[in-house]
């Protein structure tokens, strides 16, 4: 009787032979999720958006698979891992490139959700001002904290506009400040989280938008983001109708730039070319939901600032006007 290929071999050897095959399958699957994340359906529970919210972290899966492949000395698994490595590098490798030097037409901007429960608004304002930006965008502004921000920022930022719970502070004059209607239809009460103003910079006028999109929740039914997606669509249409250029958008968008729910914005605006700047939650940041985007301008490097008393980390970015 002929023996099968595994007969007469110890159990550990058979197990070791299966491990490289499993690792190879997992490597191909990870590469597929990275390369074709848009193909993941986004109907019930929005699994596509949920995957895209944490897409960069698939790089950790690749690292774990690499360690296991090295431990079992599998050339096959190592070759298979080239696929997810290539896919991750294509998507995110550019974010690791060092920041270029500042240019003559650069603006430094800060975006921060300060939290409506912030116990130290004055300290928060000082952290933001110490970064020396031209513009500071804030969300979740509530009385009496709003008066503290106004008083603390006034010496270095004499120009500001607040509409509802969002505000913009500037070193340069502001005009034509007005609210932007991004309220989802299902919200019936008072709700104003959008602002547009013209900033008169030394390099020309720009249209600056500040926005705070509705929160998303992850539960047993998946990702609840319908309100966020609807609000993103309204904001995208407002930006598309904007006649002034350049345009800079700063805000807590409650989504990453890879999340297809923000496609009405990412399809019209440039996003940061360098840096991950994970901003939420402040205690253990896993995603950047605080964004800086632009039209007819380039968002270069984005990074986080030291933690404040809020539940987000502030982000600071350099914007080069075209």
Q: Biggest sheet: strands, sense, closure?
A: 6 strands, mixed
Relative strand content: 15-25%
The averaged pLDDT comes out at 93
Q: How helix-rich are the residues, as a percent range?
A: 25-40%
Stretches where pLDDT is under 50 for at least 5 consecutive residues are: 11-15
Q: Structural class given helices, strands, pairing?
A: alpha+beta
Shape descriptor reads globular
What is the N-to-C order of secondary-structure elements (H for helix, E for strand)?
Answer: HHHHEHEHEEEEEEEHEHEEE
Count of DSSP-assigned helices: 8
Could you give the order of strands across the largest sheet? 3-4-2-1-13-12
Rg: 23 Å
Query: How many extended strands?
Result: 13
Distance between the termini: 78 Å
Protein topology:
Blueprint: H1 11-35, H2 47-53, H3 58-71, H4 75-92, E1 106-113, H5 121-130, E2 135-139, H6 145-153, E3 159-163, E4 166-170, E5 174-179, E6 194-201, E7 204-212, E8 217-219, E9 222-224, H7 226-241, E10 247-252, H8 263-266, E11 290-295, E12 297-304, E13 315-321
Parallel strand pairs: 1-2, 7-10
Antiparallel strand pairs: 1-13, 2-4, 3-4, 5-6, 6-7, 8-9, 10-11, 12-13
Helix pairs in contact: 1-3, 1-4, 3-4, 5-6
Short overview:
The chain is α+β, with helices and mostly antiparallel strands and about 325 residues long. It has helices spanning about 10-35, 45-55, 60-70, 75-90, 120-130, 145-155, 225-240, 265, and strands at about 105-115, 135-140, 160-165, 165-170, 175-180, 195-200, 205-210, 215-220, 220-225, 245-250, 290-295, 295-305, 315-320. β6 (about 195-200) and β7 (about 205-210) form a beta hairpin.
């Amino acid at each position: 009787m002929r023996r099968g290929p595994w007969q007469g071999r110890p159990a550990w050897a058979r197990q070791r032979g299966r491990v490289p095959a499993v690792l190879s399958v997992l490597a191909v699957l990870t590469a597929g999720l990275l390369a074709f994340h848009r193909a993941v359906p986004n109907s019930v529970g929005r699994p596509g958006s949920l995957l895209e919210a944490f897409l960069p972290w698939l790089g950790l899966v690749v690292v774990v698979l690499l360690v296991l492949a090295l431990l079992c000395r599998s050339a096959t698994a190592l070759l298979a891992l080239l696929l997810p490595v290539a896919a991750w590098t294509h998507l995110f490798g550019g974010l690791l490139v060092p920041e270029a030097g500042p240019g003559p037409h650069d603006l430094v901007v800060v975006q921060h959700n300060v939290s409506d429960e912030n116990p130290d608004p004055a300290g928060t304002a000082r952290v933001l001002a110490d970064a020396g930006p031209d513009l500071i965008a804030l969300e979740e502004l509530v009385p009496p904290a709003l008066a503290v921000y106004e008083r603390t920022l006034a010496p270095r930022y004499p120009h500001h506009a607040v509409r509802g719970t969002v505000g913009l502070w500037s070193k340069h004059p502001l005009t034509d400040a007005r609210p932007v209607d991004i309220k989802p239809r299902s919200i019936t009460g008072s709700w104003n989280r959008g602002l547009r103003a013209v900033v008169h910079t030394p390099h020309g006028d720009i249209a600056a938008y500040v926005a705070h999109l509705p929160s998303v929740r992850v539960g047993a039914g998946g990702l609840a983001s319908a309100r966020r997606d609807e609000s993103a669509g309204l904001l995208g249409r407002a930006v598309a109708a904007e006649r002034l250029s350049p345009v800079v958008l700063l805000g807590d968008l409650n989504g990453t730039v890879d999340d297809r729910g923000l496609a009405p914005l990412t399809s019209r605006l440039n996003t940061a070319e360098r840096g991950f700047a994970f901003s939420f939650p402040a205690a253990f940041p896993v995603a950047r939901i605080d964004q800086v985007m632009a039209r007819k301008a380039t968002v270069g490097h984005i990074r986080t600032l030291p933690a404040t008393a809020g539940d987000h980390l502030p982000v600071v970015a350099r914007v080069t006007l075209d």
